[in-house]
């Protein structure tokens, strides 16, 4: 729930909130499952007076982005925040679909947990997006952090550096599809034995 003192019409508030939600909270995934109680609400008191809509939406975006990352970091058993950015896509839908496929992949999640820069698992997650047959794996570029791992592959010392990077509390995967100009970013977390314990021991 978000509160603001901005004076803003219900229509403008709804539009701004939906825009921001669609690129923040609707772009987070811990384990692909959602709750029947998942809800996002914004309330405006109007006490602070009128606002410039672009500036308001930018400020709202900053708040919701912070909350989105907190949701991912707070996933059951999570130790690493994963950010997946897909760019050079045909359209936003393609970029988001591919990014979600990567961040939701158990094999990618466990590779991140094990600090294993296994680009093949990322390629697999891209390849299983069957609705997008215009994605040519030969044109795809995959990076962990800023280091390209496909098609240009790194040597042993580079792999050691990447593994050290992936032992941090945040890992970024960057994929260029080279099918267009659109991009999307999503957030998730690694898959750990803590996740299994928490959900195996939990009872209603």
From TrEMBL:
Q: For this UniProt entry, what is the primary localization, expressed as one broad class?
A: cytoplasm
List the keywords (alphabetical): Acyltransferase, Autocatalytic cleavage, Cytoplasm, Transferase
Entry keyword Ribosomal protein: no
GO BP term, pick one: L-arginine biosynthetic process
GO cellular component terms listed in the entry, alphabetical order: cytoplasm
What GO molecular functions are on record for this protein? L-glutamate N-acetyltransferase activity; L-glutamate N-acetyltransferase activity, acting on acetyl-L-ornithine as donor
Cell location: Cytoplasm
What's this protein's family per the entry?
Answer: Belongs to the ArgJ family.
Protein name listed in UniProt:
Unannotated protein
Organism listed in the record: freshwater metagenome
Q: Lineage of the source organism?
A: unclassified sequences, metagenomes, ecological metagenomes
